[in-house]
Amino acid sequence: MTxxxxxxxxxxxxxxxxCKQQGCRVLLITSQHLADEPWPRDHLDAIHYVPEEDEDWxxxxxxxxxxxxxxxxxxxxxxxxxxxxxxxAAALREHLRVPGMGDxxxxxxxDKLAMRQQAQEAGIAVPAFVPVVNHEVLHAFxxxxxxxxxxxxxxxxxxxxxxxxxxxxxxxxLVEELGxxxxxxxxxxxxxxDIYHVDSIVYDRQVLFARVHRYxxxxxxxxxxxxxxxxxxxxxxxxxxxxxxxxxxxxxxxxGLLHGVSHTEFIQAHEDGRxxxxxxxxxxxxxxxxxxLEASSGLNLWREWAKIEALPPGAAYTLPAVRDDHSGILLSxxxxxxxxxxAYDDPEVVWRMEKDxxxxxxxxxxxxxxxxxxxxxxxERFYHDFVAVQPLPDKPTS
Length: 398
Fold this sequence. Notes:
The protein is α+β, with helices and mostly antiparallel strands. It has helices spanning 13-21, 59-69, 86-96, 103-110, 112-121, 135-144, 168-178, 219-225, 239-255, 289-297, 301-309, 368-385; strands at 2-7, 25-31, 46-50, 77-80, 129-131, 149-153, 163-165, 185-189, 193-203, 206-215, 229-233, 260-269, 275-279, 326-333, 349-352, 358-365. The protein folds into 3 domains: 2-100, Rossmann fold, CATH 3.40.50.20; 128-189, Dna Ligase, domain 1; 193-385, D-amino Acid Aminotransferase, Chain A, domain 1 (2-Layer Sandwich), CATH 3.30.470.20. Helix 1 (13-21) packs across helix 11 (301-309).
């Protein structure tokens, strides 16, 4: 089997390695400016680069280029390694008739408007929202739904491009500034609450594995205001955990994910205690969530995803044995080029980030209380030792 990986960001090395270990022929298409990144070249059969002058990855050129490649490569699977690669992979699958999600299905995992409408139609609670298209409808929304609101790009990842709006005058100024880009946004009621993420392995439409984690602070607040990003597992078997497992299964069913992995976010509103769907994706969660999850479960989502993609016809995926420990992660931008985290020397530290101007740790323990205790202590120390603040860009950067 030949697997073509698409990556406009440097990520997915574990997926590439696992695919090769499953006996696949593995090809990679990435940006020319990522050529010097430490890709696992010994596990790749070929790397092809999108030239720097095509930094936006013109889709027509990509389809022509991959079609030319397909003259000599029988491509069996096309796998996007990042959120921003989902549409590219879908368009290529549609054009070459390769199995996997096509354009329409991918919208439920990339387009925040499409996924909200789909969830709402399935009876899943979502914060009140409206597309930024018809100004009369938008005005009616602002009259009926009290501020603050959140203006969101429909297809950006993470908190990129999101703006919190406190009054109608501010909204209309931003809408005017968007010009012809208005329809690529939606407006949503801002709901204060605790934000959770559920990371899943899905096979044959069934959620075979899912872990629930809670963010210490909303990712949007950390992204816009700076500080320490932190998340940790929650107690297994509690009403809280079971409710999130249930709504996650409902979302996966509504979006129609056949197989693969998913990272889905929910908010429990302070106002009414209700769980609301925020967004989902057909990918491994960012911010080293895969490594954190592996520390508590023993499963690596990249590897398991690769096993599923590499299955020969007629074969079935079997979930490996899973541990039920607890883990948490904290990350921040750092003032230092190579921040030294050696003073964080508790035995529960199982992973350290090695990235310029970034500090990060993962802790793991059978005890959730111990994980939370360490995260609280380390977060306070991170602010003193490392934390730097950088404005969030309005557009994604690689």
